[in-house]
Amino acid sequence: MDDADALAPRGGRARSACDLCRHKKIRCDGEKPACENCHFAGVVCTFTFTGQPRKTIREQLSEAKARVRELEEFIAVRGLPLSGSPQSCISSPCSPLSLSSAPSLPQDSSVYDTALEIFQQHLEWSWPGVAHSPQRSSFYATIYRQTGTILDMSGFWARVTDFYKSQYPATQSKVASPKWPSYQLVQQCLEYYSAEGLYAVFPIVDVAAAQAIITDHVSGRDTPRIADKACLFALTAFVTKLHHHQPMFAEADSDGYAQAVLTLVPKLMLEPNDVRKLEALLILALHLAPAGQPEQAQLFLSMAIRILYHLGAHRKSPLDPNDKSHDHLRAMFWLCYTMDKEMSIRSCLPPLLQDVDCDLDFPPTYVESFDLQFMPPAPATPHLLLPTDIRVAMLKSKVYHGLYSCQAQKFPEARRLEHIRQLDQELSDLKASFPVGFRPESFSPGGSESSHSPVNFHNLGLRGINIHLEYYYCLRKLHEASFTCSLSMPLPSSLELYYQASRSTLLYYLRVSGLVDRFSFWYPPIPPYNHQFRKVY
């Protein structure tokens, strides 16, 4: 470092740390030609002045006024009325373009806020290593060595947010307040859930038992318990959120219903462990996960799984031979299993359900044929489909335990490479069992046009999209272990497959963009509970 470089201009502040030490927030010894930290990191010790001369209050005020004028001109061009101006109270003729692109009322920006939170969460899970780990520090050092620029994600978030607000200056976040749904709406949601066959994909409520609770309450024969209310109201929030495009749910406030159910959680925790309590907690986990709150969803899922164990749902045979609800419990067990394995492999944290403690025999009504799994089922189908394939979830469990668990981190390098090859073969065998028109390789770059033609995207429902996205993610996570888990040299073949899986994910999203909400772009990797797909089937 040159001493002259450390001098700030007039009004600035002198710096004594090089770029790398300043980024890592550690002390720099200032040695030449490289400080100790840069020497051990193997990077060039550089000093980039980033300070700016201090501005006077008059200059800051002048810049603020100029910014306000720019925003006013932008709003005028977009045709948005200025708040407080007389013109905002006068109805003037507008072109169809201005009416559609610039509504007079502020729009809800909570969708963007949720998408940004989800993106940040998944990006944090996708970095090599964890915060302040050697892998993370090496990653930052590599970027700096290759580009000469310090990776500043905080600045990136700020620029993205500023750009969004410049495009939609009239947006404001919607604050959800607790709101109790009417029992008429609860009845409509239950009937819709049953008529549309949603149980096949989301087995979260015993329809007959829920109907009995509503009937007893309406007739005045019985007052619902806290667990009963939480279950019914949570179902209402879930259905109205999942199918908000239906006219009957146009005025529903799904987030408000969910907030109301959350107020019951303290009392719900003191209720005896039963099926209704399990259903309520599971639905809350499903509702919160795609709303930018995956960690809170994991807490509710952990409580639901503990009740699953208590009720014996992890066993193939019921504890009580006369228990008629065991089939429903097993269906909920598999839904929890797929969610748990997805959260585990994504966050690289131990799963809540251990395979050695569970009976993993498929349910009798489970559809094992991929030819049926990718096509939309008929309403009220007796088959159990789940949001994703159980075998994909089992493969995720093997990937975590074989490559990312604490025990796997201690394996010799040769054994880890062997695990990567074995799991890659299992993933290839799973892909080969897909129908010809629905195999993930049909969407990889460079594929022939003939391989694309058999695909009918209108018949690709939530399940088919999920399996494709999960395949690409498993492929990426599988080969990511070759260069993020202390292997001496990354395998060139694994690097290529890793990049191919990432590119294929983007390409596949572009091909099915008509079925996916634009704000769910950053959230497809958690498909089992992604409510932002426009079509469930």
UniProtKB/TrEMBL annotation:
Stored InterPro entries: AtrR-like, XnlR_reg_dom, Zn2-C6_fun-type_DNA-bd_sf, Zn2Cys6_DnaBD
One annotated GO biological process: DNA-templated transcription
Keyword check for 4Fe-4S: no
Zn(2)-C6 fungal-type domain span: 17-47
GO molecular function, a single term: DNA-binding transcription factor activity, RNA polymerase II-specific
Extent of the signal sequence: none
Keywords, sorted A to Z: DNA-binding, Metal-binding, Nucleus, Transcription, Transcription regulation
PROSITE patterns for the chain: ZN2_CY6_FUNGAL_1 (PS00463), ZN2_CY6_FUNGAL_2 (PS50048)
Domain of life, source organism: Eukaryota
PANTHER family listed in its UniProt record: TRANSCRIPTION FACTOR PDR1 (PTHR46910), ZN(II)2CYS6 TRANSCRIPTION FACTOR (EUROFUNG)-RELATED (PTHR46910:SF20)
Protein name: Zn(2)-C6 fungal-type domain-containing protein
Species whose genome carries this gene: Aspergillus sclerotiicarbonarius (strain CBS 121057 / IBT 28362)
